[in-house]
Structures are given as structure tokens and as C-alpha cells.
Amino acid sequence: MTQTARVRAVVSMQSRPILNSHARLQYDTVREAWALLSPERVFWPNEVSLDILRLCDGRHSVGQMIAILADQYAADEAEITPDVTGFLQEWSDKFLVTL
Amino acid sequence: MNEPVLPPIGMLAELTHRCPLQCAYCSNPVELLKANREMDTAGWLSLFEQAADLGVLQVHLSGGEPTLRADLAELIACLAQRGVYTNLITAGVGIADGRIEAWADAGLDHIQLSFQGAFATTTEKIGNSRGAHEKKLDTARRVRAAGLPLTINAPIHRHNMEEVPDFIDLALALGAERLEIANVQYAGWALLNRKALMPEREAVERQVQIVEEAQERLRGIMTIDFVTPDYFAIYPKPCMGGWARDAFMVAPDGTVPPCHAAGTIKSLHFERFGDWSLSRIWHESSAFNAFRGTDWMQEPCRSCERQEIDWGGCRCQAMAIAGDAAATDPACIKSPLHARMGALINEAISTKASDTTPDAFTYRRIGRVTEPTV
Asked: What stretches of A1-99 adopt beta strand conformation (E)?
């Protein structure tokens, strides 16, 4: 294994994001909220984050995700694109999502 | 208490104090428990069920060396069935063939593997264990082959601080997604060995630069978490995220303190699981309520705008340095005793200036144990 084999994944419209194998999205019955579990931290995603994360199934491309979310929120695709790609890049950099 | 007590998120389970390594900075108490004091399988399973009921979402399986427990797969399976995220914290020496795969099958989520040095000579010297480094490299490969995510943990002190760039290269080469550069916290055995472990100021400053540069360079490639050295800090850490606020630990015999060094605060009494339920301990244990929230705070914490950022810092460090567990953590620049931290650095450096070998270590040994009188 060499270091050169490891590069930062950069989000594109063709990426098909999937939740990282060591991250787990589950409903916490004690707190009645969705939790994203990862090695050292628990995240409490808000509604919008949850809607994005639920589409991270390895089947939807980023372009398709944006179309679905735009429909869901009755928003303009171009308007939400930077928010969605920014979110996915940040979560990829944190190893919560694989692009 | 003004505010309602919320359920705990995390639990550190020290399954055993037995360990093949003898690191002089171990966070375990100086009075180590022998195997015959360990809670049995049924006890741990019952504890884990109650922890899940209480709202615990993450369990860190630690020790000592947790893989010395033959029932580890069974314990992992219990937690996994309840949806609890499991993180195994191991030294990674002498793990029998097939066990890592068995833990993965049982539902283990993540492994954190420690390296005492980036090179074999350092690892062997610090852990006082021949062949340890090669075994750790082998463990790392087996963890990745089993499809488990890997964090490398590097406890840093004066005898390996110059190896920080090499730790980064090592973690990259081993396929780790996370690297913890964790400067040693002076509790337990580390407090006993403080003079031998204390780094020099210039080395700490170089280390900070190296880590910050690497964090930037490796964004999206490998996460580097940096645990800064308290003695060189301006503000204290929010120890455990606040005393009894969202995490606690369990000792090998089932004793439940809020943190792993809380036993050094002799005025506190800790309950044992089995005598009390976990829920009752979390809500009613006098030790848990002693420093919960902000009501217990003295000045300067009482009127400080950072009181809910750092929660007064570490109670055990306040005890060790200020002699008062309710004092502001002397790591804080607002503490009247902050200068004492600097003096302790200088004292350690001046006595160790000519000695760069770790020969002065008091190695962690279970044989050294004075059995607790309780």
C-alpha cells in the first residue's frame, strides 16, 4: 500500500454517494431522534440533512439527488446545488459519506 | 440541579486491567485490579442491556487489553443487537487467528489500534514488550482485511514527539481513516511518570505546526484528531464533555465512576453495578452529582462565559494540581494556579535535561498493585 494511492474524493454530479461502512444512521427511541453514529462521535442531523443522507444509497447520482430534493422542497435545482454538493463534500471529508 | 439529567451517549468499558504492555503513561489507576476482580460475562451482558435501555449509543471496549477477555465476541454481539456502536480499543499484540473476523461477524463497528512509536525500537521500549511493533503492523493489516475501519492512536510524550511525522506516514500506509495524535494526559500512571514524560516547549510548538500542516494537506484523505497537551494550554479541555453530562466509564469490577481518573478524588464514593442499577447510578450516584452542571463551580468558573464550553475542565487535574477537585482546572489561564503548570514543565525539563532515554519510567505492572482497601 502506497501513500500515492490515497487521494481526496471530490464531489461531482456523477458521484453516487453512499453512507460510509463505519457510519450508521438509526432512530434513537430514547431521544426520539435520528442519530448518525461514527467512530468517535454521534451526529444529530436536521431534517434537510436527513433527506440528503437518505438518498446516499449508492444508487442515486448527485444530479438525481438534487432533482429529487428540488421537487421535495419545491425549490430551484440551481439554487440548492451548491448547498447539496457542499454538504456532501464536507461529509465525505469527514468520512461519513463515500463519493 | 437546575436542569434535568439527560441520558448518557457514551460509555467507556474497561473490561480488564490485564495488559501485555507496560506503558508508563497508562490512564488506568495505579492500583490495578487482578483478573479475579473482573466482572463475569453475565455481569457485562446485563450492564450492556441496561446501558442500551438508558440511551447509550456508543461503547468503547477498552482495558487494560480488552482482547484478553475470551468472551469479547459475545459482548460485542450483545451490543450490536441493541444497535449500540462498538469501538474496540486495543494494543493489538497477540490476537489469535480468526478472532478479528469473529468480532466483525459479531457486529463490531470500528477498531482503534495504539502504536507507542512509529518505529519498532520506540514501540518496544515504551511498551516494554519485545516484538510488539511487528505484531501491531500485522494486526492493522488483519483489521483492514476483515473490512473494519481503523483508527491509529499514538500517545505522545517527550520520547516519541519527534516521530509525529512518521506516525502520520505509518497511519497512511496502514490504510487508517483516522489518526489520533494524543498528547499524554497526566493522570494515573502518567502522573506518576510526569517528569520522565514531559516534553519541551519547542518540541510541542513544532508538533502543533506539523499536525496543522498535515491536517490541511490530508483533508479528505485521513482525519487527524489532535489532543493538545494540557500543561501547555490556555484553556482546559471540556473533560468527558462535562462531568457526568453525556458519558461515563465502568471499571473491570463493575464500579461506575464518571471518568477513568475519578478514583483519585478520595472524597467521592462510587457505586458498583449490581448493587445499584445503571439508571440509578447515572441519576443518583453522589459522585455523578458532585460536579454535574455548573452549580458546583467556584470563581473564576462561576462567572466565566466559557463555563458551558469547557465545564471547568478536568476535576482530577484540579485535584492533582490545586488540591481541590472543585477548583478551576489549572490548565485554564484564568486559574490562580495556572503558573504552577509552567513551573511543573520547567521542573520536569530541568531534571530530565540530560536524560533522553525512558530508563526513568516506572513501568505499569499489575504486580505493583496495592489492592484497594474498599
From this structure: 18-19, 24-28, 33-37, 42-43, 97-98
- A2 Cβ under 8 Å from any chain B Cβ: yes
pLDDT of residue B371: 36
Angle (CA) B99-B181-B111 rounded to 5° is 15
User: Per-residue pLDDT tens for B186-242?
Assistant: 888 888 888 889 999 999 999 999 999 999 999 999 999 998 888 888 899 888 889
Please list, residue by residue across B342-374, b when 16 or more beta carbons sit within 10 angstroms of its beta carbon and e when fewer do.
Answer: eebbeebeeebeeeeebeebebbeeeeeeeeee
Closest B-chain CA to A25: B83
The string of pLDDT tens digits covering residues B267-324 is: 999 999 999 999 999 999 999 999 999 999 999 999 999 999 999 999 988 998 899 9
Which has the closest alpha carbon to B263: B24, B32, B97, B35? B32
Interface of B with A in 221-260 (CB under 8 A): 221-223, 225
Which residues from B are below 8 Å from A22, CB to CB?
Answer: 109-110, 148-149, 177
- Residues from chain A contacting residue B109 (CB–CB below 8 Å): 22, 24, 37, 39
pLDDT of residue B75: 98
**ipTM value for the complex:** 0.90
The verdict on B320 touching A (C-beta cutoff 8 Å) is no
Using a CB–CB cutoff of 8 Å, tell me whether A25 touches chain B. Answer: no
pTM: 0.93
B82-129 pLDDT tens trace: 999 999 999 999 999 999 999 999 999 999 999 999 999 999 999 999
Which long-range contacts link A85-88 to residues 24+ away (Cβ below 8 Å)? A85/A11, A87/A49, A87/A52, A88/A11, A88/A15, A88/A17, A88/A52, A88/A56, A88/A62
Grid coordinates representing A53 are 443522507
Long-range contacts of A26-30 (CB under 8 A, 24+ apart): A26/B83, A28/B55, A28/B57, A30/B7, A30/B53, A30/B54, A30/B55
CA A28 to CA B5: how far, in whole Å?
17
Neighbouring C-alpha atoms within 13 Å toward the C-beta of A92 = 22
Please state, in angstroms and rounded to a whole number, the distance separating the CA atoms of residues B154 and A39: 16
